[in-house]
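Journal club side-thread
Mid-discussion, someone asked how the predicted structure for our own chain would compare to the paper's figures. Pasting it here so we can look after the session.
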Amino acid sequence: MSTSGDRAALAGLHDVELAARAAAGGRAAFGELVRRHGSGVRGLLRRMGADHALADDIAQDAFLVAYERVAEFRGEGAYAGWVKRIAARLYLKRKAREAKAALGREPAEPEESSGHGEALAVGRMDLDEALKALTPAEQLCVSLCYGAGLSHSEAAAALETPLGTVKSHVKRGLDKLRSRLVPEAAAGRSVGG
């Protein structure tokens, strides 16, 4: 069957070549891009704060936008970064709509999860749990810069936010993560030592 041969041929192509084929109408080439990068996009969205269902929905929307705009991808950066920026923008727009709807309400403080105590009991904390302690802006900026591998400048461009603001959110977020994760390890050493 030539279909498996076509898939194998597509799997051997670089993302730039696949994007060029997709721009020329090659749906199978675009399907290969989705296969390669779908889980990374969903993972980024979950790190940004989306639950699994929302991450799936936004990832699907991001790939639809990417398909419509695939001719704009020139290979100047990684395709994964390009589609992740699209997904991040879609997620931010959704969060902005939700924030406008909740204008009259006080912002909720991050809650301690029941899994936190269990994580302490075994001497380590899950990064996803630690990220929940950050403000949404800090979580988003840390996720983009460290989860998606974007530079501070790329994250600022993707978020349409000043570079200094992104750097501040990243610094505060990393400081909070260190204070939550490092003292636990130090406490474990001092008890045994």
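Post-session note: DSSP finds ten helices and no strands in the chain.
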